[in-house]
Structure prediction request, 171 residues.
Amino acid sequence: MSWRTILNQYPWAAIPVAGVVLFLSVVWLSWWTWPRGEGNRQLMAYFYDMNSKQLFTAPVNTPVPIETETGPYQGMPAGVRAHVYSCGPLLKDTEPFIGYLEIPTEAAPADQRPPGVTISEDSEEGRVLIRRPEDDRWHALESPEARAIMDAIYNRCGAKTRLNYVTPPPE
Prediction:
């Protein structure tokens, strides 16, 4: 028996069905449009102070490099983006680690850029350089050295433990 047949036999049944559909629609719309108290919370990201070798947080959309309290690092602001990971869920006994640091190509000091990387008005915007915190040279993201950094991150936890990207809580 189809819905159309049932509604033709019992036309009064359409009223409660329509009421339930209307009620559920109002609840669903209210749920997705109702203002929440956390609406003004800022998404945060980890950054690394090249001078103090410490992590700090700042809004995720902060342009890199960032001025820090420790002053400049080799003629540039000392704060760079840090990508933090943990082996398994971040619990009390889990120690997060810095996988790599990131900076736009044009922000890296010239003596730390990879060979062959030059900045000109014709160069691509948004090219990224990465390095480990203990390294002294940046590597282009598409280079074999950067691939080795990424491989080391993914292999650090072993095959049985899941690698997790760690973000700071919103403020």
